[in-house]
């Protein structure tokens, strides 16, 4: 499960360098997210630009990753592809996350804040 | 779609990935649209992974058979495995947990059967001679979302 982390102590970008977040990798994704976000940045943005498919296990793992941040840190999403956006929308989980069109938009918002 | 498409594969998450890839590639080669391909992948992904995780498991291995036929208005699927039976011998209803509560109460599961019921029609499960059989249809045109007053414009 290839995740790449970048950013600052305030804004961490985690890019998923995989085409699928599904049952085959959901647990590894959750574990890697816990490791990568242990640094404690208050805002984390998950870049899903390369993810073409996410199933219910993947969605659950993303929710778990958000819970792992605790009550005050944020996990936003960016660059959702149509197949992935569809699953968030159908399950109404798109209302739970702030979703950015792309990473540049996320940067712009947090640069102002 | 050739009128009849059939795959048999081992009940593992990686074999499910490969099976989905082959099925979706076949649909693409047939010129099926984005809606049908993405809906098929979502529904089949949930059903097949459910078999891997629950019908089979660490103590029980086995094969899965996927059959698909092109109907007039839908793709008709029959999925067979010889794993453990569905609890209560019936399909989970797939109700979504509420998402408007506290963060720590957000659901991490229960999405799969909701998606299946939302996107597939005529779901039918039966158990016979140690075999699970699940049949369902994925319509070529999206199901309208329904509320109490009827279809909701998307």
Question: Given the C-alpha coordinates, what overall shape of chain A results?
Answer: globular
In the CATH scheme, the class of chain A would be: Alpha Beta
Classify the helix fraction of chain B into a percent range: 25-40%
Strand content of chain B: 25-35%
What is the CATH C level class of chain B, in words?
Alpha Beta
Give Rg of chain A in angstroms.
13 Å
Using only CA atoms, what is the Rg of chain B? Answer: 16 Å
Largest interface: A-B, 26 and 28 residues
Q: Which range does the strand content of chain A fall in?
A: 15-25%
What is the strand tally of chain B?
A: 7
Amount of helix of chain A: 25-40%
The stretches of 5 or more residues of chain B where confidence is low (pLDDT under 50) are: none
The main β sheet of chain B shows up as:
5 strands, antiparallel
Taking all residues together, what is the mean pLDDT of chain B? 91
> What's the tally of helices of chain B?
3
The named CATH superfamily of chain A: STAS domain
CATH topology of chain B: Heat Shock Protein 90
Organism (chain A): Aquicoccus porphyridii
GO molecular function, one term (chain A): anti-sigma factor antagonist activity
Pfam families (chain A): STAS (PF01740)
Family (chain A): Belongs to the anti-sigma-factor antagonist family.
Question: How would you summarize this macromolecular structure in one to three sentences?
Answer:
The complex is a heterodimer of chains A (113) and B (154). Helix content of chain A is 38%, strand content 24%. Chain A is an alpha/beta fold.
């Amino acid at each position: 499960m290839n995740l790449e982390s970048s950013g600052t102590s305030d804004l961490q970008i985690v890019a998923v360098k995989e085409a699928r977040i599904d049952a085959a990798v959901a647990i590894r994704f959750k574990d890697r997210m816990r490791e990568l976000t242990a640094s404690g940045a208050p805002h984390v943005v998950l870049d899903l630009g390369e993810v073409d498919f996410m199933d219910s296990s993947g969605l659950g793992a993303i929710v778990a990753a958000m819970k792992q941040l605790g009550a005050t840190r944020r996990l936003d999403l960016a660059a959702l592809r149509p197949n992935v956006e569809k699953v968030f929308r159908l399950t109404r989980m798109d209302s739970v996350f702030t979703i950015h069109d792309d990473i540049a938009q996320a940067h712009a918002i947090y640069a102002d804040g | 779609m050739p009128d009849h498409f059939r795959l048999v594969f081992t009940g593992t998450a990686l074999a499910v990935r490969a099976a989905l890839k082959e099925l979706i590639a076949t649909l693409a080669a047939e010129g099926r649209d984005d809606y049908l391909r993405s809906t098929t992948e979502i529904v089949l992904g949930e059903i097949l992974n459910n078999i891997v995780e629950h019908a089979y498991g660490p103590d029980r291995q086995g094969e899965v058979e996927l059959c698909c036929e092109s109907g007039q208005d839908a793709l008709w699927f029959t999925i067979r495995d010889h794993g453990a039976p569905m609890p209560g011998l019936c399909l989970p209803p797939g109700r979504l947990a509420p998402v408007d509560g506290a963060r720590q109460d957000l659901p991490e599961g229960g999405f799969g059967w909701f998606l299946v019921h939302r996107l597939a029609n005529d779901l039918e499960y039966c158990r016979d001679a140690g075999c699970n059989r699940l049949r369902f249809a994925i319509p070529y045109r999206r199901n309208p979302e329904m509320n109490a007053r009827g279809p909701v414009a998307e």
